[in-house]
Amino acid sequence: MEDLSDQLPHRHRDAADRSGVLTKRSGEELLNSLTTLRADLAAVIARLQERVGGVRIIGRVRELFLEQRDATGLALQLGGFDRSIIEETEFPEEGEGQTPVLATLPGHPAHEDYLVAHDAQRFSDWIGNDAEHLATRVFHKRDQRLFIANVNRLPAEETLGVDLIYHHVNRDSFILVQYKKMGQVGAGRSEWGYRPDGDLDGQLKRMREVEEACTRLEQDPPTDYRFVHHPCWIKFCKSEQVAPKGDALIGGMYLAREHVEWLRGRPGLAVGPNGGELFGYHTVPRYLDNTTFTQLVQDGWIGTRGRASDIIQAQIKASLDGSRALVFAGLIGDDATQAERTRERRGGSGS
After folding, report:
1. pLDDT digits (tens, 9 = 90+) for 142-161
2. DSSP state of 83
3. Closest to 272 measured CA to CA, from 264, 252, 259, 237
4. Under DSSP, is residue 273 helix (H, G, I), strand (E, B) or coil?
5. What is the tens place of the pLDDT at every residue in 278-302?
6. Strand residue runs (E) in the chain
7. b/e map 142-169, b = 16+ CB within 10 Å
8. Angle at the Cα of 188 (from 185 to 192), degrees rounded to 5?
């Protein structure tokens, strides 16, 4: 403590000698002096500051990690699992290499003994072993198991974004969610919006091809009713400068592929103040949020109908070949009833 006091500028030396809340300047000087004396504490102090003020998203490595973290949390939520574990993920330090979200979680991954052997092998075959960054984990509750994999073949700087593929094994149904970042736009940069880039047309074309393949593979007649039986969705999400607190998902808008294309063909919709294309809260009249999208998937109102497993492997390859990171989730086991899920959402109440 004497060394610390001596290291401080004279007018701030009482910061090392008294208790209580320090002024902002005294606090900064104290931390600077502490890390000057003990350089090894800098990383510890940075982690503590991030717990209080949130993790700053600087650089492509953390941007991609945040999207992958969100997709992993969304996969847990779609399966009806507690997503709070993503609060314990550790963001990579600036300048570090890419790390899968699942690799930073505490504890040890569950063994594949928890999975039906056939499905475990199938998931492994679908994903392959040639990814540079790969981490898998199994979560389980009651008679359900949720297999999640974080996969990326390219460095963060060469990766265009994140795809989530969610497969419900018992329904043989799947959903594809592609992430698109919204930036701050408008006067004073007070609004959020996505301006279509050169990749969007190609990605929408790929989505149409996926949906046409799914239509050809549907059971005839379908055995399960859907509001939307096409799998492809885009999540337009905020380009956060600070990671959401706790286990919160990134705010954003979910739009089906056909809805995106419909909006692009309607004058006055998805158009920004200067006349260019813009997907944002103020230009898209209706969209699904995290809560609504999750509930519709959980209750089986959204997703393909039948023989999804015939095309998922191709979609995994297409995501990775398209320079995108992938979060794949496979849910195994019978669903809870809608009444049981409603009680869970209400905290166990029987009303």
Report:
1. 888 899 999 998 888 889 99
2. -
3. 264
4. coil
5. 999 989 999 999 999 999 999 999 9
6. 133-141, 144-152, 162-168, 173-185, 191-194, 232-238, 252-256, 279-280, 325-332
7. eebbbbbbbbbbbebeebbbbbbbbbbb
8. 30
Amino acid at 68: Q
Output DSSP code: residue 234. E
Tell me the C-alpha to C-alpha distance, in Å, between residue 215 and each of 110, 178, 211. 35, 20, 6
The pTM score is 0.80
C-alpha distances (whole Å) from 173 to each of 15, 245, 275, 329 are 61, 32, 39, 12
Instruction: Report d(CA 318, CA 143) in Å as an integer.
Output: 32
Q: How far apart are CA 311 and CA 214, in angstroms?
A: 8
And the tokens for 2? 């004497």
How many CB atoms are closer than 10 A to CB 7? 16
The amino acid at residue 210 is V
DSSP-assigned letters across all residues of 162-181: EEEEEEETTTTEEEEEEEEE
| Alpha carbons 68 and 326: distance in angstroms, whole number | 8
- What Cα–Cα distance (Å) separates residue 54 from each residue in 94, 245, 270, 326? 15, 6, 32, 25
Question: In one letter, which amino acid is 223?
Answer: T
